[in-house]
Design brief:
Number of strands of chain A: 10
Helix content of chain A: 55-70%
Oligomer: homodimer
Strand order of the largest sheet of chain A: 4-3-6-7-8-9
Distance between the termini of chain A: 66 Å
Radius of gyration of chain A: 31 Å
Structural class of chain A: alpha/beta
Strand content of chain A: 5-15%
């Protein structure tokens, strides 16, 4: 039992006790490969957030180690992610963080606040909240954010002055106007960086496999693409002295590990940064949990939504105190970690150690690294987030879902990241409720010679002039009960001989109070018109609730039948032969 | 066909053409009885709204005639209603309408704006919007408004100075503090008015029937209660010269009919009054359509929701131009009209003519009418709106619905009428969505020897180690698909031998895009874990949509089975005998 309790608070104790020696090589290799990807990503996302590059490295050391102990995903790779970096940039430029020092302090404060918010959500078990971010909303949001990120990198790619935050439309306008002023050498570096990165993906794998290399080895090799591009372009800049010909370089990165600090905790900034902190925690959590879930499934593992809030919350708090930016589980990086063979979070710890080594000893190597190369890495990484297939697919499936994608995308791009997300959640919720207001309703009759009841409009079935069987294919609740009521009223007005009306509830999963009140009223009104209301096929949980509402009193003389067949048998017994209907 | 077209625009043409001479006596009597009720109500509600008493009479002449032509309810009695009057008082005191003249002009403008809003809603077919005002929300709203109205009448009842609008809590505080300062003669008149009105209801009917009068005649007679109280108290005031002893009286009411006017149309006030106008139109429409629907059912007639928007919109526009306050179909008055035997809207026209006669010739009779008597009429009329049974019943049925009633009630009482309603709609919607996030899910097995599949936890059924049957009792949508996903993941992790998983969709009425994407992901993840996902019992409309999403491509080798039985037969054929389970 003590082991169970330990596993509840430190999920890592589970895989640690069960660790097998043969898992070690896999974890070591995956940890190394992920580190090769994480170092350039860390530097790039720090610059995307408008922060010094080492902040991205610091965020990749302690936070993943904390996550390794507290998280329930075996393969999630926690560290800086592109969308959170964009949100940081957006929040800090909007809230008018002044000098570089304040700017950095505010970024750390954002990480601390996001951490506390996630821990608070865990305490209140609010993991269910993220369910309200529907797939179309998330798709539109991610595409919009990806496009914003790409636009924000125009400045670094072409060495022109483009605002890196704000309305995407304004950014695009400025960017296009500035193209003629671009610095050609920087642009050349940036564009060749993008080209090389694209070539290092499928084309490289295809080439290597054609040359006889095993597919898996080729894939692993292609993962070093970003690092190779960095090495190549850094060497090129250093060799050709490009930093003196106008190419912006990263410059000095202080060597060493982050020193724990808390002087960024300024209460007066908390209120200003709160909306952004909420966004960062929600979006970071949604991204992390999505990828964690997908990866856990593949190996029949389980992710605990609430424990993930704890783990990501703690990781963000630790990020802030160790000088790092907000963190989350990155989609592409975690997939790389998984497919490189990571078995446990030991791989994550290996990655963290390697990044720490880089921070300690190798930062001078990045002195000549051109900023355009980092911009190229960002652009290529987020381009794959642009989910136009998702839009087409949603649109084909249901126009309303397609509209949700589009509205969220445009909202993020033209209004603001926060408003875009809120708009998306609002549209998705409104659409869902709106749909519920016009449920599918069928008048049913019996397929002759069977016990099956089907829609009279689709099947040749028998019906009875004194009996009407109405099946509602939706739970009954406040937003649709009046529609059902109107439908019944119209049917009753059209069928003059009717004496009994049976509401077939086989597809009714819940009945809320508004609906039960309306049904009581319906029973009453039908009775004054000489018609008895009956129910049939009522599900167990629905029936339990109905009995709390004096059902038998107000339904009488109407009855509750176990099946439609039973209702028909009972009521046609003394009446007449059925009339056929088609 | 021309008659059909006419009936579409002027629904009255239907009953007019079919009018039978024997309906006339009923309509005349009902029209007279309703007029006896409407005259005191009109005066009282005008005073409740803070307007001169004749404004209530003017609103009872032309608007019901317009409604008679355009409305689809045969028995709805249109005119001033208490809640709308309260909303007018609240809006005008809040928006700082200055002098009496501006105050009246703003009230007319509110009527005109409400009319235009209702007509606009009709044009956009937004009648469905009111479905979002759930029964618990409406119950809490009505009770809160009733209590506010009663509190607002303390001033007139006791001749003390109590604010007639604002927070109910503040009003109650002032009222109780002022009780010792009350004018005893006025208080005596007011309290005896209330006592007489209460006695004129059930006690009077009981007495008269005991004295041998027919029950129906006694009920008709009791309807004259308000008029009798007015006559009695007016005579008392005049005879004892009470107006000179501090009793507030109605005083001069200008005789004559309203003159058409439009000088109240001030564009600069429109924006200030817009929120109140929206509230008045929505609440007025909800009250009207509720009672119209209830009454139409009893005689197997039909109400057209959208045409009602047109009729009530036109009635309000006409009300404003003929010097009247905003109107709606009153609940109690329409019920009186119906049970007095009204067959058609001819009864409403008769009522309107009688009110016009009163306005033309009998206004001097109301000179000595004490305001306390009108306050008594208001208090007794709205006391029956206080729906505490509704609260108890909702609470018993479902704690969440009970909370919605309570939150709306307290919101209306303590915050404001508008915020209370918004709060109620918000809580009802959030509760509904929240419920949807944790659907009932059952693992099912076969009842031995039958084709029925039931919950393994409730019934002794047969199951198969390689096969898992999961039935979700709710439509699949963005807010619950992750819960379903997690549930399946847990089951799969607990049943190591599983090779096939069948999602039984018999209770799934819709699948939205988020859910279908998650199902595709689930099929994919299960496949990587060596499990095949199948679907069974998919409903026709759901299937149509699924086929738009390349279902067979991503489900393969999984299949769609017509029934759970078919799925089981197909998959256990080559496998093994079932194991029993209980």
């Amino acid at each position: 039992m003590r082991a169970d309790r330990l596993a509840q608070f430190i999920p890592a104790s589970g895989w640690m006790r069960a660790y097998q020696r043969q898992q070690l090589p896999d974890d070591l290799l995956a940890g190394f490969i992920t580190a090769v990807l994480l170092v350039p990503q860390g530097l790039a996302y720090a610059i995307l957030a408008g922060l010094p590059p080492q902040v991205g490295l610091y965020a990749s050391i302690l936070p993943p180690v904390i996550y390794a102990f507290l998280g329930t995903s075996r393969t999630l790779s926690v560290g800086p992610v592109s969308v959170a970096a964009l949100l940081v940039a957006d929040a800090l430029s909007a809230s008018g963080s002044g000098s570089d020092a304040t700017y950095l302090a505010d970024a750390l404060l954002l990480a601390a606040m996001s951490g506390v918010i996630l821990l608070g959500m865990a305490a209140l078990r609010l993991d269910v909240l993220v369910n309200f971010i529907s797939h179309p909303t998330l798709s539109g949001f991610t595409s919009g954010a990806a496009l914003l990120i790409i636009l924000s990198q125009f400045g670094n790619l072409l060495a022109v002055s483009v605002p890196s935050t704000g309305s995407g439309f304004a950014m695009a306008m400025v960017a296009f106007a500035e193209v003629p002023q671009s610095h050609y050498l920087t642009a050349l570096l940036g564009i060749s960086g993008i080209a090389l990165l694209l070539l290092s993906r499928r084309p490289l794998i295809a080439l290597l496999t054609r040359l006889g290399m095993a597919g898996e080895t080729a894939t692993l090799l292609s993962r070093a693409g970003p690092l190779a591009v960095i090495v190549l372009l850094t060497a090129l800049v250093a060799a050709l002295d490009m930093q003196n010909r106008g190419v912006a370089i990263v410059g000095d990165i202080p060597a060493g590990l982050p020193i724990p600090q808390w002087d960024f905790l300024r209460v007066d900034r908390v209120l200003d940064l709160l909306p952004a902190a909420i966004m960062i925690s929600l979006i970071g959590y949604v991204e992390s949990i999505s990828v964690a879930r997908v990866l856990a499934y593949r190996r029949r593992q389980k992710v605990d939504n609430n424990q993930e809030l704890v783990a990501l919350g703690a990781a963000n708090v630790v990020a802030s105190f160790s000088g790092g930016m907000p963190v989350a589980g990155g989609f592409s990086r975690s997939t790389v970690n998984f497919s490189a063979g990571a078995q446990t979070q030991l791989a994550g710890m290996v990655t963290a150690c390697l990044v720490a080594l880089v921070a300690l000893f190798f930062t001078p190597l990045f002195y000549y690294l051109p900023k355009a190369a980092l911009a190229a890495i960002i652009v290529v990484a987020v381009a794959s987030l642009f989910d136009w297939r998702g839009f087409l697919s949603a649109w084909r499936y249901d126009k309303a879902d397609g509209c949700t994608v589009l509205v969220t995308f445009l909202g993020v791009l033209l209004l603001s990241i926060e408003l875009g997300l809120l708009l998306g959640v609002g549209v998705a919720t409104a659409t869902f409720l709106w749909r519920g207001t016009r449920p599918h309703i069928a008048i049913v009759g019996r397929v002759p010679g069977t016990h099956h009841f089907r829609n009279v409009r689709r099947h040749p079935v028998e019906t009875w002039p004194q009996l009407l069987l109405v099946r509602v294919d939706r739970s009954l609740f406040f937003a649709n009960i009046h529609y059902v009521d109107d439908y019944v009223a119209q049917q009753v007005a059209e069928q003059p001989d009717i004496k009994h009306l049976v509401l077939v509830c086989s597809a009714v999963n819940t009945i809320d109070y508004s609906a039960i009140e309306a049904l009581e009223q319906l029973a009453h009104s039908l009775r004054s018109a000489g018609i008895t209301l009956h129910l049939s096929d009522v599900k167990g949980p629905v029936m339990d609730r109905l009995e709390h509402h004096d059902l038998y009193r107000w339904l009488a003389p109407g009855q509750v039948f176990l099946s439609t067949e039973q209702a028909v048998t009972n009521m046609t017994y003394h009446n007449q032969e059925p009339s056929s209907h088609d």
